[in-house]
What does this fold into?
Amino acid sequence: MDGIWNIRKEKGFTSHDVVAVVRKILHTKKVGHTGTLDPDAEGVLPICVGKATKLSEIIMDGTKVYRAMVRLGITTTTEDASGEVVEQKEVHWDEDAIREATQQFVGEIAQVPPMYSAIKVHGKKLYELAREGKEIARKARTVTIYGIQICRFLPPDRFEMEIACSKGTYIRTLCSDIGVKLGCGAHMESLIRTRTGTFRLEDAITLEELKTLAEEGKAEEAMLSMEAALTGYPRITVSAASTKLLYHGAKIYQGYYHCEQPLSAGTVAAVFDSRKNLVGLYTVQKEETVYIKPYKMLI
It folds into this structure.
């Protein structure tokens, strides 16, 4: 089977745990996830199987949407509810101030990764160093927050927000930084990822549901094909005359492929052979002439 399952990760599982369970359920080894979710977080975690593992990075690059509960007044070691309390401060509840503080983080921001993260430094994960009582300097990373909406206020010390952001964004760090901006500190009390790319929470299934489908021989009913996962990309069909070049990953010049829409230079498109078989993702190049060249082969 070559495809993607939209799994709803439950609390208590790491992303690697989910991969291991899917391997066991589907009796296959070639399985990969599309972006880490902390054990205490839940929500959308697309799992790629077979040739679809080549799409993992593509899916990972998609916009993420999260729903986070923020607890004001308490700072923790891990920036979420699983950590030890570092400091407690009085909360002066002000809904306008909360709105203003959250909007200051919209756009490109520099974010310092938390010590309790899986980033490796000198071959060791930061959370391993943190558990040893060590703290080291971390370089800030540029991430993009496309938008923050307050879903509900829960006085005297909580509010829920929805965040649309780029990959690599630490939502618990965002919650902590908002607390700093408000002057009372904060941590992330809970987190649900509701979307990654085109994969949405309302379409996700649990591991238990996947197991039941597999036992009934219906696992593929919940599988999204590689072609379906790329519906957001322009579609190019290559002529039969260029099939050999296509499968060898060569350039294909304009006149030997067809696309229903005009494509600008740099556009990434899903490329199919003359029999409608998906071959790969190609980029459009415009130099002396127009051609497409491989970005990622999927065969």
